[in-house]
Amino acid sequence: MAIVRSIPGTADGRRRLALDSPVDRRPIDEIDVADAAEVAAAVARARAAQPDWAARGVAERADILRAAVGILVARREEIIDTVHAETGKPRVEALTMEIVAGCDFLNHWSARARRDLRPHRQRLHGYLLPLKKLYIDYQPLGVIGVITPWNGPFILSLNPVVQALLAGNSVVLKPSEVTPRSGEWVVRILREAGVPDDVVQVLHGDGETGAALVDAEIDKVCFTGSVGTGRKIAASCAQRLLPYTLELGGKDAMIVCADADLDRAAAGAVYLSMFNTGQVCMSVERIYVVDSVADEFIRRVTEQAAAVTYGPGAADMGPLFWDRQLDVVTRHLEDAKAKGADVAVGGAPAAGNGLYFQPTVVVGATHEMQLMTEETFGPVVAITRVRDEDEAIRLANDSRYGLSGSVFTKDAAKARRIAARLVTGSVVHNDASVIYGVAEAPFGGRKESGVGQVNGTDALRGFTHAQPVLIDRWQSKKESVWYPYSEKTQRSLEAVVRYGFGTRLGRRLLS
Prior knowledge:
This protein is of the alpha/beta class. The protein contains 15 helices and 21 strands. The chain has helices spanning 36-55, 58-74, 76-87, 91-116, 155-166, 180-193, 207-215, 227-240, 262-274, 291-306, 323-338, 389-397, 412-421, 487-501, 504-509; strands at 3-7, 16-20, 27-32, 120-122, 132-140, 143-147, 170-174, 200-202, 220-224, 244-247, 252-256, 284-290, 342-345, 360-363, 380-386, 401-402, 405-408, 427-429, 446-447, 450-451, 464-472. The strands form 5 sheets. A 7-stranded mixed beta sheet has the order 13-14-15-12-11-17-18, with helices on both faces. It is globular, with a radius of gyration of 26 Å. The chain starts with a strand and ends with a helix.
């Protein structure tokens, strides 16, 4: 919900928050804030339940999670209604971001779990090969604390929770206080599919509840949110050497090359800056267009942005989800105008009670402006002309963020060459933002955009400890290098060095 207000607490002293709609600011819900004692109790229940869940084995866990796909399909209208009530996002965007992606992640990870988490034998190299056998077992970490944001409230809760459960962990989820019921749907669906109540739990609350979860007796933190909160979590985890992954902010750059398909580039610039009202960590926040095609590109962008509909009902774009974002977007645009940028389309909050903001195009943006250096998280296309692709790459890298980026060109090989020079977590050719939905792609930021990665081929293993087990092949009574040392011990070791590593054939055989 876009507006969160503190209201009088309950008789037992618990804090309460009131939640108002971003569409028209009417009251729509209230939540009780879980305190540290409630967090500790939930974690204790999760700790007690986790061994039995892990003992079921990966195949049984995968079957339960796959059954959740059918439940998600059946309950999709209820989930969409909740997401819309809390965010105001259009039905198409709720289907695209939350439902389709949710079905795909559930289906994909439950299918991969048996293969990715199966204990396996790892072939050894060199002189150890005839002596030992190596096995890798994947042990669940225990209790995972998952803290998620409000911009993709269902999918950004579902994905890490499902991965952690498949790996044999129990999970305590703390969704954003801005969108609590959307996150809560994840737990409801998984319990309906057969995950035990204490294995997956939800706690509601604000930053105090999240801090209590991080400080509780958990075994890993998985956080998606702001850079500031991510720093605090990292500092807290460092005190206990607790593992964590942080998916933080972005200021993603889009590079438009001279040979780009301008129709696609312009359409992409508008959509990829404005879908979900621009509130996507991988949305396009900066555009660098080569000067030789800039005039035509700007003309097409301006034309398309002016046609974007917004407001209640069947519109292209919904409201900002949180009242605080309205202030941020307004401040960035006022700063850009004061420093010489031209607002070609939009540029102001829309009239009415809702948190709507006009689709906006800014031309002549520079790195002296907050619009090009701070995360805006709003429906703004910010365009900068550059001499050539080299200048575009330099400016794209001139950021404290490094989450993702995009390159628009007809030459795929050129896109890969430019990508290799971009200091960012991922790069997309002729598209953007979609990379999180590509389950096979490791997703994570560089610089201030995060620590660690989610998704990819090692996603499920990221919620485990990979335990190597080294087995003796021959069960000999002693090793050749054990006490007591002798001249034979030394001759054997010298032979390994001389004939094994001292010759080209030996090095090849032992590699």
